[in-house]
Amino acid sequence: MKKYDWILHGGRVIDPANDVDGIFDIGINSGHIEVVAENLDVALAEDTYDATGKLVAPGLIDIHTHVYNHATPLSVDADHYCLGRGVTTAVDAGSAGCDTFPGFRAFSVKQSRTRLLAFLHISRAGLSFCSLAGGVDLGELESLKLVNEEDCVNCIEANRDLLVGVKVRLSDTLADKGKNENEAYRRALATAAKTRLPLMVHHSLSVVPLDDCPGAMAKNDIYTHAFHGHRSSIIDPNSRKIHPAVLAARERGVFFDIGHGMGAFNWTVGEICASESFWPDVISTDIHCFTHEGPAYDMPTVMSKLLHIGMPLEAVIEASTFTPAKAIGWEDRIGTLGVGQEADIAILALEKATMDLEDCHGQTRSIRKRLVAHAVWKSGVPGTITHPIQIPNLEKAKAARINPLRPVICD
């Protein structure tokens, strides 16, 4: 009988949680990591994978996705667009509210190989009838009758195995022309505090000032879409520097998350942040039906954009594995390659590239290297890798350049 189900050998193992960065082999048995060591005897394994020249990382953790497939206008299939790109844990960012969460458990969680967790939307309907924030006439906060703290708390207490936080979207187009934003935000903050869970806040095109958001956010809350360039950007449009309330929030322990999406990654904002060494704590895609063919594409592509603006590779890996695990309170279970952990593993290649890669506004940068998923194991079982149909998507970039909803921060 073989000692290991799998040996992954010869790759550069980057495991920030355990301060590991070097050439090692990994032995997998019964769905768990049994050993991380040099020069394992491959004859002891039922199957092997030669990772020479590649990066071996903990399974990627994408904490901003929309994967309540077929139940909301935005959502996509998690196994294709997450697991197929090296993401072993995907956290749905508020697609379900307290009235619709049972369906998320039954029809998404139980039917996916990808580990699915969720932020519960403060709106009881979640995103069941809502789509993008910009240019819509009806949002999930159109009436405060949809926002009930007690019902949200009860839903969280009944589903703590899956619910890792609370979500609110603060955009005037989603909240009766901004009239309901401040009260919805107050209720979301209160619900998170009552349940001792983080609040993830989408804050773009909002009437809520930065002094209040992220100004009122608490330690371990998550400010997503951090690199957008619209009104409510973390960059002051006059000084073109990071707003003091943002720096103060980071000092308090607020996590800043990319949440790329359709409108929330701006090359100019990213470069300004890079010049101030303000790197995101967490990298995520906001993958949904409008982003999987650009401009976000997938987790490795968003990671590649951070590499391009100068974020060190090791920091990019940490912001895609261990830090998101900490942000959702699961660092004892996922995001590491420690012995005894579930064998959630992503094999990535750092490839040479020559492409003009777009942001959400059609601005491009000429990238020379990119991360690409080559293999993935979820709980010790290999998954099927998928790839974007077309990258870069020049037609989408062209359409973004003529979108009337222009950023206030741009080239």
UniProtKB/TrEMBL annotation:
Modified sites of kind N6-carboxylysine: 167
Entry keyword set: Hydrolase, Metal-binding, Zinc
InterPro entries: Amidohydro-rel, Deacetylase_Atu3266-like, Metal-dep_hydrolase_composite, Metal_Hydrolase
Residues binding Zn(2+) 2: 167, 202, 225
Residues bound to Zn(2+) 1: 64, 66, 167, 286
A molecular function (GO) term: metal ion binding
EC numbers for this chain: 3.1.1.-
Residues with site note (Transition state stabilizer): 169
SUPFAM superfamilies named among the record's database cross-references: Composite domain of metallo-dependent hydrolases, Metallo-dependent hydrolases
Keyword Metal-binding: yes
Annotated Amidohydrolase-related domain residues: 282-354
NCBIfam families xrefs: PRK09237.1 (NF006689)
Protein's name in the database: Deacetylase
Natural source organism: Candidatus Moanibacter tarae
